[in-house]
Design a protein that fits this description.
InterPro entries (chain B): ABC_transp_permease, LivM-like
Strand content of chain A: 15-25%
Pfam families (chain B): BPD_transp_2
Oligomer: heterodimer
Number of helices of chain A: 14
Shape of chain B: globular
Strand content of chain B: under 5%
Strand order of the largest sheet of chain A: 2-3-1-4-5-6
Keywords (chain B): Cell membrane, Membrane, Transmembrane, Transmembrane helix
Number of strands of chain B: 2
Structural class of chain A: alpha/beta
Largest sheet of chain B: 2 strands, antiparallel
Subcellular location (chain B): Cell membrane
Number of helices of chain B: 14
Number of strands of chain A: 15
Protein name (chain B): Branched-chain amino acid transport system permease protein
Order of helices and strands of chain A: HEHEEHEHEEHEHEHEHEHHEHHHEEEEH
Strand order of the largest sheet of chain B: 1-2
Distance between the termini of chain B: 7 Å
Order of helices and strands of chain B: HHHHHHEEHHHHHHHH
């Protein structure tokens, strides 16, 4: 009796396990697109906004492409590379998607690129992950990035800080992983070329709470501090720096002076005004295409007053994917070869200008230099100062010269 | 509770000793690839088995030794990082390129030693203090790997770690990997079952139940506990090797505090009274992790996971095993106490 009962239980368990694998069949009238975003952990809010951006592009297409219905399958990571690969594996190997948009964060992008190499029949488009090496070194043939990388986002800022602001000595404080390395690299590449010096670089772990030792190591005579910290880290650092009596003006990384920081209360508000930064979007960009995008974006559930750069990045990549799918008539039955050829030749009209990709399948796009300004109602926003047209991945430096600068890391570049 | 069969006139045969339920379960697991897709073989089957192994190493400590540890993922991480550092990786940091038959025993051995050291530090404490010490060690190891660049390559960790290819088989292919996980799991499971009924296992359980009395009788309580840590470390180390082959990479995210808590959740949800518990817990955990997002959408799936776990622990403090016992008395009790 006992054996019987147990066997039945085991059988029930086994059939329950096997059932889902049998039930999946692809409908030929739909196209399945996987979207991978961080819906857990510290970057959840950013991931949700990325998802909104992707859905904005899908909704603009009325949920259809090449006469077929779009089915979005979502995958979630917690910003760790392991979880990103596991989520991608599920989308590709279980759900059977042939095209995938994502991920969000730097190291995730590098991990997904490695995974892409093992799935040559699947086409991957980046979300917003912005580490340089995702596309610059040992790229994957089937990984495209229509959003730019973190060094490109800094285009023009080094020059602006040196020439317009007159800074000569700048210390940097940034989080300790591939995306901030890329940002600091992008800033310093220009700033050092102009003749600027960077006497100290501080790397802090994500989620650091106590910055006293970091603040102590910043030389007293610097003209400004370049800060590439995200969300709560930026707020913590800025308020502690100010409490410690620091007075040096700031230069912001692309995600340092976004709305999560600009809306924080207290004296930070006054300090932030005038902080220059650069990135793929600017709050006060006033073109018809941008305004139309903002209107479409706001139709999404829980949308912010203005799309974040995460919504923008996912939007641009999804838009490029849909345009290419339209071109090949939704046909990915050849292992996506035609689709990838279409993507390589594509020029997309985005809210932030034309975007195309280079030989490494990395975007060439406009970058915006901004400064934090105050609206009449006292809220802060990033005011557009200057547009840097069509920045490529080597920041205008010839490829071999740029590669000679070496791989981005904590120590590279250096100009003390 | 002894190992010796009640019928002393004959020794039971091997099949009889293994028992019908185990044979049925074993047959099922062996035949599982016949009905499962590649994804279900690795992401569900293989991953559940290796997470179950991690849970098993905790079950050994907590169930038989009364020591709840949050550091099992750290020990697995030691093995995983060892494979990356002594073997091959494509990160450009270390990667000494030793062959797998050297790195694997080394990794597992290191895991055992590290585990014994953690044990040596924590066995003189009890209950919540053990949990706190092991949590501190797990957290410390996480931040250390995160910030050490010379050995652990910081936040990015190591990528491009390949499972070995020998006998003409790539052991990361779905079918071989599943059977590899299954084989390791079965060996460890059987070893724990056997060990629990051995003299050492019985002494350990007696230490759990009344430490002072055991000490008074003359047993070296500390040595028993540290040895239990060493054995648990071997199991966690094996799981760590499988984990790094499974992911092809290891980074601080692998050994984060959240991962440490996952192992505890797996063991508690499954049940700590029998070695099969962690495997049941792992299966439920992995299924929920993978499919919750399809059931409730992207916004609330972590809530669903939490609610299911709460429900299980609320209905049955003994986890799934306790639940099974409530459904059918004797269902889960039997293998634990073979001659009650």
């Amino acid at each position: 009796m006992q054996l019987h009962r147990r066997t039945v239980l085991a059988l029930a368990l086994a059939t329950g396990l096997a059932a889902p694998s049998v039930a999946i069949a692809q409908d030929s009238d739909t196209i399945k697109i996987g979207v991978l975003a961080t819906l857990e952990g510290a970057f959840t809010v950013l991931g949700e906004d990325g998802l909104r951006g992707a859905m904005t592009a899908v909704d603009e297409n009325n949920g259809e492409v090449a006469g077929k219905k779009i089915e979005i399958v979502r995958g979630s990571s917690d910003a760790s590379p392991d979880s990103a690969v596991q989520a991608a594996r599920k989308l590709v190997e279980q759900e059977g998607v042939k095209v995938l948009v994502g991920p969000l964060s730097g190291d995730e992008g590098i991990a997904i690129k490695e995974y892409a190499k093992t799935q040559p029949d699947v086409t991957f488009l980046n979300g917003t992950s912005a580490a340089q090496d995702t596309t610059l070194r040992e790229p994957a043939e089937n990984f495209f990035r229509f959003s730019t990388d973190g060094a490109q986002w800094m285009a023009g800022l080094g020059e602006y800080a040196f020439n317009e602001k007159g800074y000569r000595n700048v210390a940097t404080v940034a989080e300790d992983y591939s995306f901030p390395y890329t940002q600091v690299f992008g800033f310093m590449a220009e700033f050092c070329k102009e003749g600027g010096k960077v006497p100290s670089k501080s790397w802090v772990p994500i989620g650091n709470k106590d910055y006293s030792s970091v603040i102590a190591t910043i030389p007293a005579d610097v003209d400004a501090i370049y800060v590439a910290l995200g969300g709560a880290d930026a707020v913590n650092f800025l308020s502690q720096y100010q409490q410690a009596g620091g007075t040096a003006p700031l230069i912001g990384g692309s995600i340092t002076v976004d709305q999560t920081v600009l809306t924080s209360k207290g004296r930070i508000h006054d300090i932030l005004i005038g902080t220059p930064s650069a990135g793929p979007i600017a709050d006060s960009l006033d073109t018809p295409a941008w305004n139309a995008f903002v209107e479409d974006y706001k139709k999404q559930d829980g949308a912010f007053p203005s799309p974040s750069l995460f919504a923008h990045g996912y939007y641009v990549n999804m838009k490029a994917l849909l345009a290419a799918l339209e071109e090949v008539n939704g046909d990915v039955s050849d292992g996506g070869e035609k689709l990838r050829a279409a993507l390589s030749d594509l020029t997309v009209d985005t809210p932030t200008g034309e975007v195309s990709v280079d030989d490494n399948r990395n975007a060439i796009a406009n970058i915006y230099i901004t400064e934090v300004a105050e609206r009449e109602d006292g809220t802060l926003y990033n005011k557009l100062v200057e547009t840097v047209e069509q920045v490529n991945q080597t920041l205008g430096i010839p490829q071999d010269e740029f590669m000679a600068l070496g791989q981005v890391s904590r120590d590279n570049p250096s100009c003390e | 509770m002894t190992l010796v069969a009640t019928d002393r006139t004959r020794t039971p045969g091997l099949l009889e000793r293994i028992g019908a339920p185990h044979l049925a379960l074993g047959a099922l697991l062996l035949l599982y690839p016949a009905i499962a897709s590649d994804f279900f073989l690795t992401q569900i089957g293989g991953f559940s088995l290796l997470m179950g192994l991690l849970g098993l190493s905790l079950m050994l400590l907590a169930g038989y030794g009364g020591m709840v540890s949050l550091a099992q993922i750290t020990i697995a991480g030691v093995a995983a990082y060892s494979v990356a550092i002594f073997g091959e990786n494509n990160t450009g940091v270390l990667g000494l390129g030793w062959p797998w038959w050297l790195t694997v025993p080394l990794a597992v051995g290191l895991a055992g030693i590290v585990s014994a050291l953690i044990g040596a530090i924590s066995v003189r404490t009890e209950g919540i203090y053990t949990i706190m010490i092991t949590l501190a060690i797990a957290t410390g190891f996480y931040y250390f790997t995160n910030q050490n660049y010379a050995i652990f390559n910081g936040h990015s960790g190591f990528a491009g770690i390949k499972a070995p290819v020998f006998w003409g088989i790539n052991w990361r292919d779905p079918l071989p990997f599943y059977y590899l996980c299954l084989a390791v799991a079965v060996v460890c499971y059987a070893a724990v079952l056997y060990g629990a009924r051995s003299t050492f296992g019985l002494t350990l359980q007696a230490v759990r139940d009344n430490q002072r009395r055991m000490r008074a009788i003359g047993y070296d309580v500390t040595a028993h506990k540290v040895f239990a840590w060493f054995l648990a470390g071997i199991i966690a180390g094996l799981a760590g090797v499988l984990l790094v082959w499974f992911n092809g990479r290891v980074s601080p995210g692998t050994v984060s505090v959240q991962a440490a808590i996952s192992v505890l959740v797996i063991a508690v949800v499954g049940g700590l009274r029998h070695p099969i518990g962690p495997f049941l817990g792992a299966l439920i955990y992995v299924m929920l992790e993978v499919f919750a997002i399809d059931l409730v959408g992207a916004e609330r799936f972590n809530t669903l996971i939490g609610l299911v776990f709460l429900l299980i622990v609320f209905v049955s403090p003994d986890g799934i095993l306790g639940l099974l016992r409530q459904i059918g008395p004797g269902l889960a009790d039997k293998p634990l106490r073979p001659d009650d």
